[in-house]
Design a protein that fits this description.
The chain is mainly β. The protein is 9% helix and 32% strand. The radius of gyration is 17 Å and the shape is globular.
Length: 127
């Protein structure tokens, strides 16, 4: 899956058609990339714990490069139909790690935990 973030200064649509993949626009504020997203349908969940959201959810993400190998991000989620106040995440840090060979033998959901521990988590070390 990929995500399209339009960086051509277009505005978010006023009443977007709700979709699984939403609609994102981004712009630079000094050295931070600010991404605003809307157009969610209400059929997905926010996380693995099943927290709901409505089709009115809006998300703002801010990404900043800290150094050559590190990016920090923070997210603000606002959904007046589902929550009484916006929620602001803590800072997430992604650190580039040396290249590792990509495994091609994982295709069963039962292998997901092993893949997560051996490949996905080490590839995006969060501090």
């Amino acid at each position: 899956m990929h995500r399209t973030i339009y960086l051509d200064r277009r505005a978010l649509p006023a009443d977007p058609e709700p979709t699984w993949y939403r609609y994102s626009v981004g712009h630079w504020q000094r050295n931070s990339l600010v991404v605003e997203t809307t157009g969610f349908n209400d059929e997905s969940r926010l996380d693995h714990d099943g927290h709901p959201h409505s089709d009115q959810m809006r998300i703002e993400e801010r990404f900043q490069r800290v150094d050559h190998d590190t990016i920090e991000g923070r997210m603000t989620l606002a959904d007046p139909k589902a929550y009484t106040a916006p929620w602001v995440s803590g800072v997430t840090r992604w650190k580039l790690t040396p290249k590792r060979a990509m495994r091609e033998d994982l295709c069963a959901p039962s292998d997901e935990l092993k893949y997560k521990e051996e490949m996905r988590d080490p590839a995006a070390i969060r501090k």
